[in-house]
Amino acid sequence: MVQLAVAGGFVFAPDDPRKYVLNFLSDNRRTGISDCNRINGSWQQEETSLRFEACAAGRSLCPPGSPHNNLALNLRDVVAYEFRAGQLILTISIEGVEMEFESRD
User: Fold this and answer.
1) pTM for the model
2) Rounded CA separation 89/58 (Å)
3) Closest C-alpha to 72, from 16, 10, 22, 8
4) Which tens digit of pLDDT belongs to each residue from 14-61?
5) What is the 3-state secondary structure (H, E, C) of the chain?
6) Number of folded domains in the chain?
7) Tens digit of each residue's pLDDT (9 = 90 or more) over 22-34
8) Could you tell me if 49 and 79 are in contact, meaning their C-beta atoms sit under 8 angstroms apart?
9) Pairing mode, if any, of strands 98-102 and 3-5?
10) CA of 22: how far to CAs of 35, 40, 71, 88, 104, in Å?
């Protein structure tokens, strides 16, 4: 994750984007890392709509200032995606909230 922008214009940017990773697997499973926790679940996509289901995350206490809680809470509310300048943008149902991820080839 490169950044998480929330309503009101506040932006959470992790110190190390490599600690925030989403992997979309071909069997509609999703795995990843959110700072000090592993995350997993499933995903469903139709055109530009995207939905995450069965979201689960570890319960390790991440360091102060970690965007983990914001990411974990917002992932379950994802409703759409788009690509902007090569970045994956996930949007949720609350206007102005976006999560931006860079591609890992």
Assistant:
1) 0.84
2) 24
3) 22
4) 889 889 999 999 999 999 999 999 999 999 999 989 999 877 887 888
5) CCEEECCCCCEECCCCHHHEEEEECCCCEEEEEECCEEEEEEEEEECCEEEEEEEEECCCCCCCCCCHHHHHHHHCCEEEEEEECCEEEEEECCCCCEEEEECCC
6) 1
7) 999 999 999 999 9
8) yes
9) antiparallel
10) 12, 9, 11, 10, 10
Query: Domain range for residue 90?
Result: 3-102
Which letter, b or e, does each residue of 3-19 get, where b requires 16 or more Cβ atoms within 10 Å of its Cβ?
bbbbeeeeebebeeeeb
- For residue 62 the two structure tokens come to 């991440």
CATH code for the domain in which residue 52 is found: 2.40.128.270
For residue 53, which of 21, 79, 85 has the smallest C-alpha distance?
79
